[in-house]
Design a protein that fits this description.
67 residues; 82% helix; elongated; mainly alpha
Length: 67
C-alpha cells in the first residue's frame, strides 16, 4: 500500500503523540511496571552471583541483616 510522504509523516507524528499521551496518562502503571522489571533484574543478578559464591549459614545472614 502506497502512502504519500506527507501523509506518512503526519501518521508518524500522530502515532508519537498517541504514545506520549498514553505514557503520560498511565504514568503510575508504567512506573510500577518499570520498577518490577528493575527488581527482577536485580534479583536475577543476585541469584547468579550467589551461585558463584560459597554457601553460608542462615545465622550468618541474620547477623548481617541485624547490623
Amino acid at each position: 500500500m502506497y502512502i504519500p510522504e506527507d501523509k506518512e509523516a503526519r501518521l508518524n507524528e500522530l502515532f508519537k503523540q498517541a504514545v506520549l499521551e498514553v505514557l503520560q496518562e498511565q504514568r503510575d502503571e508504567f512506573y510500577g511496571l518499570f520498577l518490577e522489571v528493575l527488581e527482577d533484574i536485580s534479583m536475577t543478578k543476585a541469584i547468579h552471583e550467589g551461585e558463584r559464591t560459597e554457601p553460608i549459614s542462615k545465622s550468618e545472614v541474620y547477623e548481617v541483616l541485624e547490623k
